[in-house]
Amino acid sequence: MGSYEAVATEKPATAKWVVSCMVGGVIVGVSLLGAYSGQLGMFWKSRRRNKKPVRVYMDGCFDMMHYGHCNALRQARALGDQLIVGVVSDAEIIANKGPPVTPLHERLIMVNAVKWVDEVIPEAPYAITEEFMKKLFDEYKIDYIIHGDDPCVLPDGTDAYAHAKKAGRYKQIKRTEGVSSTDIVGRMLLCVRERSISDSHNHSSLQRQFSNGHSPKFEAGASAASGTRISHFLPTSRRIVQFSNGRGPGPDSRIVYIDGAFDLFHAGHVEILRLARSLGDFLLVGIHTDQTVSATRGSHRPIMNLHERSLSVLACRYVDEVIIGAPWEVSKDMITTFDISLVVHGTVAENNDFQKEQCNPYAVPISMGIFKILESTLDITTTTIIRRIVANHEAYQKRNEKKGESEKRYYEDKTHVSGD
C-alpha cells in the first residue's frame, strides 16, 4: 500500500499517465470491441444478404391438377429457398402420355396459383435432356432437380431424370399417396359408365363409393384392368396443418366469403378466388359437404371427396382459410361468427339459379346488403372438365389402361418411404 502511495506521491505525472493509460486502455478496448462487434454484425448481415439462395426445380404435366401435385410442390419448396416449376407443353404430353385434359394455359394458371411456387417455366420438355439441364443450371441458376419416388420412364424405357442423377444434382421427395391424374380421370370414366347404376341406387350411393374408396367393379378386378382405380386417400390432421396458413385475420381485416363444391379444382376456380381475394384482406372459403354436393349436383358428384377438395383449395395462394363442410345457407350467425364483410358468388357456376329458388342460400347476406356477384373470367366448370373426358373417351381410356398398369405395379411393389 505504501509503495503505491510513494509512486503516486513521488511521480504523480507517471501515476496519472498509468491510470490514464489503464482507463484509456479499457475505453479503447471497449471501443475496439464495440467497433469489432458492429463490423461482425454487418459482415453476417452482408453475408446473409449476399448468400446465394438455393433454387430447386421441379417439372410436371400438372394435368387435372390436384392436392397430390400441390403436396409435391410443397415438399420440393422445403428443399430450397426458391421453387421454379417447369410445366410440360401439350405436344410433349401427347407424345409421351396421351392427350391432356387441361390445355397449357389452364395448367399455367393452376401452377402459378400454388402458394409454394416462386417462378414458372412454360413449355418445359418432358425429359431432362443434357441441353435443357445445362440451361437450368446456367440460365435459371438451379441447384437441384426434384422428383417423386415413383419412377418416371420415357417411351423408350429410359429414366427421364438420368442426366440429373448422373450430375449429382437430383433430390427425391415422397409421392403423395392416394391420388393421381390417372386416378381422377378413372373416377370420371367410372362415373360415366356407372351413371345408370346410380339412378337405381339410393341417393348419393355412388358418390359414397368414390369418397370411401370402394367400387364393386374394382373389388371384382374389372376396374383395375381398365385403369379406373378408386382413391386410396387417407386424410390426416397433419396434412391439413401442412397446407394451412396458420394465421387468422387481423382485428380490422375486411373478410370476404365465397363458398362452393370446388370439385375437380380447376382454373375457373382459381380465377374467381383471385377476384374474391382482391376485394378484401382475408379470403374465407366455404367447402360444401359431399352430401350437400350430391343433393344439389346429382348422386354421381362429387368426384373428389371433402378432404381432397379442401386440400386443393388450401394450396391456393389467394385463400387464407377454409371451412371444411360449410353449410349450404349463409346464416346471420355465421356472418357474425366469422365477422364476414362481403359474400361473393361467380357468374359461372354449376348452379346459378339460386336467386330463383324458394330457399335462396344467400338470402341473408342479400338482405344485409353485403352480397356481390363477380364476373367470372373463365367459362369453366366441373362439368366442363367431365365433358372433355367424355368427348375423348376412347383416348383417355387407352391412356388410363396404359398408365393404370404402372400404377398397379407401384402399389404392388410399394415400400415405406420416410418423409411428408
Describe the structure.
With 420 residues, this protein is an alpha/beta fold. It contains 20 helices and 10 strands. Residues 1-36 and 196-230 have low confidence and may be disordered.
Could you tell me the radius of gyration in angstroms? 30 Å
Q: Structural class per helix/strand content?
A: alpha/beta
Broad shape: globular
**Uncertain stretches:** 1-36, 196-230
Helical proportion, percent range: 40-55%
Mean pLDDT: 80
Portion in beta strands: 5-15%
Label this structure with key terms.
alpha/beta, five-stranded parallel β-sheet, 10 strands, 48% helix, globular
Draw up the topology in text:
Layout: H1 2-10, H2 12-50, E1 55-60, H3 67-77, E2 82-88, H4 90-96, H5 104-112, E3 119-124, H6 130-138, E4 144-148, H7 162-166, E5 170-173, H8 181-193, H9 195-200, H10 205-212, H11 216-220, H12 222-226, H13 237-243, E6 255-260, H14 267-277, E7 282-288, H15 290-297, H16 306-314, E8 321-326, H17 332-337, E9 340-346, H18 363-367, E10 371-374, H19 382-391, H20 393-413
Parallel strand pairs: 1-2, 1-4, 2-3, 4-5, 6-7, 6-9, 7-8, 9-10
Quick structural summary:
Helices cover 48% and strands 14% of the residues. It has 20 helices and 10 strands.
